[in-house]
Every structure is written in structure tokens, then in C-alpha cells.
Amino acid sequence: MTTATWTSQGHLLGLETLSSAQLRSIVGDAEAFLPIVHGTMPDASLLEGRVVANLFLENSTRTRVSFSVAAHRLGAEVVDLLGSSASTSKGESLVDTASNIAAMGVDGIVIRCAASGGAELLAQHVNVPVINAGDGRHEHPTQGLLDLMTLLQHFGGELAGRSIAIVGDIASSRVARSNLWSLTALGADVVLVGPPTLVPAEFASVVPEEAGRGAVSISHDLDAVLESVDAVMMLRIQFERHDGDGIPDDYRERFGLDVERAGRMADGVPVLHPGPINRGLELAPEVADGPRSLILRQVTNGVAVRMAVLAGLLASDG
Amino acid sequence: MTTATWTSQGHLLGLETLSSAQLRSIVGDAEAFLPIVHGTMPDASLLEGRVVANLFLENSTRTRVSFSVAAHRLGAEVVDLLGSSASTSKGESLVDTASNIAAMGVDGIVIRCAASGGAELLAQHVNVPVINAGDGRHEHPTQGLLDLMTLLQHFGGELAGRSIAIVGDIASSRVARSNLWSLTALGADVVLVGPPTLVPAEFASVVPEEAGRGAVSISHDLDAVLESVDAVMMLRIQFERHDGDGIPDDYRERFGLDVERAGRMADGVPVLHPGPINRGLELAPEVADGPRSLILRQVTNGVAVRMAVLAGLLASDG
Amino acid sequence: MTTATWTSQGHLLGLETLSSAQLRSIVGDAEAFLPIVHGTMPDASLLEGRVVANLFLENSTRTRVSFSVAAHRLGAEVVDLLGSSASTSKGESLVDTASNIAAMGVDGIVIRCAASGGAELLAQHVNVPVINAGDGRHEHPTQGLLDLMTLLQHFGGELAGRSIAIVGDIASSRVARSNLWSLTALGADVVLVGPPTLVPAEFASVVPEEAGRGAVSISHDLDAVLESVDAVMMLRIQFERHDGDGIPDDYRERFGLDVERAGRMADGVPVLHPGPINRGLELAPEVADGPRSLILRQVTNGVAVRMAVLAGLLASDG
After folding, report:
1. ipTM beyond cut 0.85
2. What is the value of pTM for the model shown?
3. In C, which residues are within 8 Å of A93 by CB distance?
4. Which of B42, B59, B69 is opposite residue C51, by nearest beta carbon?
5. Domains A6-140+299-315 and A141-294 share a fold
6. Are A262 and A287 in contact (CB under 8 A)?
7. Which of B130, B96, B137 is nearest to B110 (CA)?
8. How many C-beta atoms lie closer than 10 Å to residue B266's C-beta?
């Protein structure tokens, strides 16, 4: 773990290598940008004249728009390269596409792709900052940061000793993977919850045992952990990645957070979800829109986090 | 009818509830912006730093680009969420998508959707101004406003006592519906023209009888009204909404505005069309491009109207 | 050949009518913009408040993004009208679409379309500058200009007497056509190389014999010319235009620039390619990424050239 600023890496590829001090530094910047997102402070012009390229080889309207709003709030312009029209997701072609965009003199590349490690591959080949907006099953660091920011807000700035359940398709989830790194780095314990097909045993040992780092455990029984955890993060069931493979027929009955289950959670225990929600499947509408839900706050924090990341990487290299 | 400014509603969902004074107020603002559209006045920066979201769940390149140009002319940035990639058009999901965009801190949402009433549904769930860019068969208020502006320009600022024919598929047309409200509010009489399948009898009683409001009548015979009206507004035949259902085989012969028919109209009677035109079907190319045509002026006025609406709703809530 | 500035035409439709002085003038402007592209000079605000419409009826992510970055670097905003959603590529409808965009008060239209001569057709019907970004098999002038700029940089500002090979599907290539005009205008001799099906004999007489203009010749044997030319420009084999028709089965063996062939070229002879590359087909990856390659420099120069063209046409008509 380095004590250098996180921007010294020049990219944001994942949360695995960030220390708790670095994670807190990004979240602190994001907090400072929040009044701009809320419209109670004038926009910043930190990135005036900069051009950010959104290279989204997989579709993700919300993440793309969040990055775009963040860039515009800082005075930057955005060019979109979307879907199959941009390129294939083959490794070679991905590098070709990115090399070309970089050669056009854009100031940063936000990359969403199906290939795990695609963001790092890009970072090795271009001379501009690369921001990982989700690469295969690897990481989705800005999602991890916005979840971290939201939980830090909720728990008054400290996560040490807190127990956070992440429920759903852990094996396919880059969101779970980024959260594993950042939540444990801040000292929280993480319980991964889901059927054995979606929560393989090896996930319990992904994160190293270190002083100050939280522990990871696995449970295949949501009801058994629900009443003891301090926060519940529901994941989206991604049928599009599975053809339903590995998702038990009784998934909703066993792992869906319905009104009855939410009623058994302790007072004040919040519910998070990265969106978009399969309403009535992994999460009941009444819970998603109810008092436990931090979901829209996650969305707002997402813009602030992306402002912090863009500002950190693009303003500093000027 | 209220005497308050139209912006007090916080949204623009339709023209049905706007008084003639409010309609004139928007058109007056649009006239003031027209020199910016024409490039003979520097751009305004009224909306500098604002971000407008174009949420177009139905495709409409022209309307979207018109809103985008209007926003840029006022110094605002635009993020596009287009088509099926943005979300489904199911009510619940529409609200989810819009809630998320609003939570990102955008300053306004321009919505085009297939669901009649979709814009109002959104306005009930988000805390930012919603501008209806066409919702199902309900309304398309900025189209109604640009048509009104164009006709007011042509008739020297007064429509009272004028007779305006709207020709085509009235039943499916949100354009016709918005125009019904605004034209009669300004005192014009409207004749709805088309075959009985496309112009149901109940349309004659949509608009209430009120002092100062024009009357609505129905005709199934274009030739019978053509020589007596003061303006003719042709609608686009929307095969994509019908599978041709309800459109008579001899539609063009009976309701198309060809050169011969245009020749029988009185001197100076103008022709309007919301575009895009099915050339040679509802409107002959010679008429669309001829001296009666106000069609490109409608397009120019459309940018000015959208500037007025964006400025009214987004600059005032600052 | 006129001595007037190239902007006096009001559009950029092709390179055929530009003199060597006019070509050098655009390239000179582009050289002046290059530090902005490289990020070593602050952005210009020459086009602040201007709105450029990208009307791309054929897909071309790279060219569109290059124009967008160029516009943003000059302070302009961009609206995209893409693919089949924008309109059909039928002549009449193309004019309709463009007339509408122009009526919205945009300051310039960048057009990519399948119809040869489509850009000129537009220029006849709209009152704003039209920039041809590739029209059918006619011209792709900004590609020609960036190739010219790249070769002038390589050869110290003079092309007279140089011999440039253009290799590939000459018959379908608007890139080849634009380069034919500009390279010979600067005094370079051009050798068109490919199988007879792709390099028809009539291409040898497209360019007139004029004092100061280079000559055009044809070769069906790459190996016969490879060791004597001063630069090699490989074209993309466009299977999408051919269904493979006219492309010999042994194309790669006879006309691909592989490592062995590149090894026989004289020291310092550069390789260009307009991208995207079919790696391993017309060009070996080792050559594309090797020391002879000017391909990424072409990409960078492309932004500078498009800045020069946009600034020339849009700033001057203000």
C-alpha cells in the first residue's frame, strides 16, 4: 500500500490497489463536489477546454450519463463512442480503437467493456488517463467508490467493525469485486450472500488478511444474516449474462429482499442497489422506494465521485 | 385559466391548461430569441453551466436536435438518452429512469415517449422541470407553440376569427391535439379534416365553449373546405402507428394536398407541416417547396420556442 | 485554379478544385492548431457559441469523433444525427434533412453519406457551410488533407518529384480519389497499385496533365514498385462494399504489406493507412505498429486539419 496520492498511478483501473487513505481522499473530494451536483454551488470550471471520450463497448446508459454530467459540471466536453458501432470488444481492436482516440488528443478515456482487464490493457497502450467504468467481471471502481461514499455518509465517516451484506450474483459482479476491496480496506466485514452457484467458496479468500482490513465470509442463507448486518447491498440479477444459468428457480423466494424480509431488519439498516433494479425480483418496489433505501443517494453520489476522479486525473496532468 | 406566468407550473406538459396570455408570453420570448437562431445576435448564456437531459424513448431526430441546438444556443450542455437503450417505455421503468436522471442533478428533462400522459407521470416523480416533447397521442406542446408562433407571424399577431384546417390522422396526432388547444385559445376556428376513421366525431367537443375561444368543426371533404380556410396544416401520415389500419386506399386522392388543390386555395393562404413530410403522399413536393410553404420557418421558430421554454423553466428555477 | 482563398467557396466538397497554394494554406493552418491537439497550448475559442451538426448517414465513428474533438477544441458545440435514424440516404430525403438542420440555425454541416456527390447536392440547397466527410466513391477531402499534411511533415514541406504508391481498392476509394488530386497538385507522382478489378485503367487519366502537377500511373504488381517509391499508402479493403466481389482470393499474398515486403522497402520510406486497419490482411500488425508507420500521426493531424477547415469556414462567415 502506497502513501502516494492515488492520482500518481495516472489511471483508475480498480480499487484493489488503493489504500484506505487513498479511498478516503477520493470520497473527500467527491463530498466537496456534492453541492455542485445539488445545484447549490456554481459549476466548477476545473476541466474547461478538456475533452473526455466515453468508450462504451457495452451499453450502460446510466453510468455513461453519470460520467457525462460529471464532466459537464466541471466544464469539460464529452464525445461518445458507443456499442458495436465503436469497435468490437476483441482485445486487439480495443487497443486500436483506444490508440486512435488517444492520438486525437482527448484528455481522458472512460472505458466500459466486456473483457475483464480491458481497462488495464488500454492503460498500457495509451498516454492519457484511463478510467474503468466496468470491465467484464473484474472491477467497476467508480461504483465501488460511490457505494463507499454512501455508506460513509450513513455511518458518520467510519466503517470499521461494520458488517455489510452483498447479496446476489457475486461471481459475475464487478460491483461486488470493487466493493470487496474498498469496504474491507476501510475495516468493514463483508458477507457475500447467494446460492452456491453464484457465490463460489474461493471468494472468501480473495482479500488478504491484513491489519485494519475487514474480513470476508460467505453465506448461502439470506435469512440467517439479515438480522445481524449493518447494511444490505442488493445486486442486480443479470439474466443477460447467464441465460438464467446458475440462477435457481426459487431465487426470489430465497434471496429477494421483499417487504416481509425488510421488516425483520434492524431499525436504520440501509438498503443499497447499483441499479437498474429488477423490481419485484431481487428487490421489492416498496423497499426500493421506502425509508431504508439509499438508492437515489447512490446515484447522486455517483456524479460527485466521477467529478472527483475526472478532476483528480485530468486536472492534475495539465 | 390562471393569470400567473406559465412557468409557475414548473413544467411544460401540454397546452390544454395555458391561457392565451400565457401562450402569447412564450411566443413573445421566442420572438426575442429568433435573432440568436438566425445568427444575427450573439448567443445568450442564460443557461451556462446547466445540463439538459434528452430522454427520447421514441426516436425523433428532428425534435431532439432542435432541443439540443436551443440548449446549446443558451450555453447549456446536453446529454442524450435514446431509444430502447435508455429504458423500456413501461410506466414503472420510465419513472425509474427519470428518477435516476433527476438524482444525477440534471437541470431539466426533455421527454419523448410512447405513453400518453408519460410526461405528467414523470413530473409527479421528479423534482426538476419536465418538458413534454411528445407523449403518445396526448400532446406535443412545443410543436403547438411553434405552429402558433408561425401563424401569428403570418397573420400579424392576431388569429381571432381565422379558420385553420388541420388535415390528416387527427385521432393519432398529438400535434393536432396541442394545436386544438392553442389555436382555439387565441380565438381561431379549427376545422379537422380527414376520413371518419381518422377524425372521430368526438373531436368536435374536446374543446369547451368559452368566450374568446374559437370553435372546432369536422369535415370529411377536403375540397369542401379548402377554398374557405385561412391556413392549412397538413399532418404526417404515420404508417408506423397504423400498419395502414384506418388509412383509406384512396387517401392521397381525397386528402393529399397536390398542385391542383393548392391552386384552388385563395392567394396568400399558407401551408404548414410538422415534418418529416411523406412527399407526394399527404403533400406534393411542389407545394412543400413552393411560395405557400411556411415549413422551414416552422423549423426555425421551433428552435426559438424551445429556447423560450428552456429559458423559462430552467433559468427561473436557479 | 483560382488564387482566391479556399474559403471563398463557402464549403469543402472535395480537393479536385483546390490549388497547391490553397492546399498548403489549409495545412499551414492545421500546423498552427497542432499544439492545441497535443495539449501544449490552451484551447482556442474561435468558434465559441457555434453549433456544428454531424450528419453521418453512414457510420464512421473515427471521422465523426475527430470532427467532434476538433469542434470542441475550438469552443464549438456538436449535435449528432447518425445513421438510419437520421434519414434515408435517398437524394431527396437527404436534402430535406439537411434543409431542416440548416433551418435550425446550425453554423455548419459535416456530411457523410453513401451517395457520390451528396455533399455538393447539400451545398446547393442549404445556406450554411457544408463539409464533406466522405460521399460515396467521390471524395473524402479532410482525409486527403491529413494525408497531405503527414507527408509534407515527413518530406520537409516538399512533395515535388516524390513517388507515392496508393495500394488497394482504388475504384471504391474516396480516399484515393482525394489523394490523387492533392498529391499531384503538390507535384508528387502517384502510382495506383492493385489488381485490375480494383484499379481500372481509366484512373490513369483522371488527373489532367498540367505544369507543376505530378503524374499518375497504374501498376498491378506491388513488388515491382515497392523498392522505388518514396511512400506507401495502404487502403482498407472494404468487404462491406463488395461482398468480396472483385477482391482476388490471393489478395493478401499479392497486395498485403507484410513484414517481408516491408523489409525490402528503402530505409525511411513511410507507411500510411486511413484506418481502421484489417490487421494481417492489407497490413501486418508489425508494420502498422513499426517504425515506418505514420498511422497515429495521421490521426493526430486529422484533428488539426478539421480544426483548420472548421475555423476557415465557420469563423470567417461570422
Report:
1. yes
2. 0.93
3. 276
4. B69
5. yes
6. yes
7. B130
8. 10
